[in-house]
Sequence to fold (400 residues):
Amino acid sequence: MSHECCNDFTRAQLLRGAAAEAGRGLPAIEPGMPTPAGTGLTRRKFLSRSAGVALAVYGASKIPLSAFDRGIAEAATPEKVLISIFFEGGIDAMSVLAPVGDPLYATLRPNIKQAGGAGPTFTEDTRLQWHPGATPLAELHAEGKVAAFPAIGYEHPDQSHFTSRHYYEIGELDIGQHAGWLGRYLDAVGDEENPLQGLSMDGSLSPMLATTQKPVAAIGSVDGYEMWSPVSDPIDTEMYKSLAKFGSLPSDSAALLQVRRATSQTEKVREELTGIGTIESPVAYPETEFAHKLAGLANYLESGLPIRVVTLNAAGGYDTHSDEAEDLGKYLTETCAGVLAFQRDLEARGLDDRVMIETCA
Amino acid sequence: MTSDFRAMYCSLLEEWLGFDSAAIIPGAAGFEKPRLVRA
Fold:
C-alpha cells in the first residue's frame, strides 16, 4: 500500500461516480411514471470534514470534490430555510381534516369515517376535525404556527398520483422538465461549490432539488462516525492509545513502517471524526427514524451549516388503499410527533424564525 | 380544488425565500397567490 493511498484515505474522499437514475440516487419509480427530474445528474460521494457527514453530491460535475469542503466552510449561513416534507403515495387529505360536520361524510365514508370528537376540532372551520394522529399539528395550529390549505391541486388532473407527484416536484405541468422547482431556485441563488445548499435527507436526491448547474446533496444518515471495535470503554480507549503509540514507533523494516503509518493514519481519522455528528437536542424527540432525522437537521442548522432548502419524506407511506384506517394513523402520528418535537427544538435554539416547513402530498 | 399548487410555490418563494417566483414557476403572474406568512 503506497503512502499516497494513506493520504487519500486521510483526506477521506470516496470517489464513486455514477449518474443518478430512478432507483439509483433518485427515488425508484413504477412503470408509467414520468422520468424524474435529476435523471442523468452525476452523483459522487465524499466525506465532508466541514459538515462531518458523508454526502452524495449531485451535479456540478466539473467541480472537484475537494472544492466542496471549502465551499461548505466558506458559504454564508442563509437567513431563511425551507423544509419540504413529502407524504409519499398521496395522503387522504379528507382524513387529515375530516368533514365530520357534513351530514354526507358518514354516508359516503362508512368504513373509514372518523367519529365526531375523535380528534381536535379545526378552529377555522368547526365542521372539520383533525385526525387524532395530527393532534401535534393542531397544537401548533392553535399557536398560530400552522396554516392549512386543503384541496390544493391543478386543473384537469388525469388521476394518476405518479403524474401529480412529478408535477409537484418540478413545479409545473410539463413532463419533460428536468429540474425540480427548488432546484431552479438554487440554480438562481446558490453557490457553485456548496452542495449543502440543497439537502435531501432520504439517501437519494429528491427530484424537487434537481438542479441544472449548482451542486446539491443527499445524506443517508445524520449520525456521526466512530470506528467499530470488538470491545467497549474503558478497554477500547486504552486500545486506541496503544494503536497510536504503535503507529509512531520507528522501524528499520520498510514493510513494518508502512503498516505503522497506516495504523497512525487510521487512528488520526478516528480521532478527527469522533464527536462530529453527535446529536444533542435541548428537547426530547420521539424515538423514531423520522424524528431522528429532524433532530440531526436541527443540529446542522444550529451549527450554521449553509443549508437553504431541505427535503425529506414523511414517515411511512400514504398510498394506503384498504389499509388506511390502520396505516394512516400510525404514520401520520409518527410524522406529526416528529414535526412538533422539531418545532420545539428550533424554538429552544432560537431558530424558529429562520425555518419554514411545507408539507405536501 | 381550492388552490393551484403552483400558486403556493410562488408564495413560498416570494414571502419566505424573498425571490421572484416568475423566474422559477412558469405562468407565475397568472396565479392568485395566497398569503402564507404573517407580517
User: Anything to note?
Assistant: The mean pLDDT of chain A is 86.
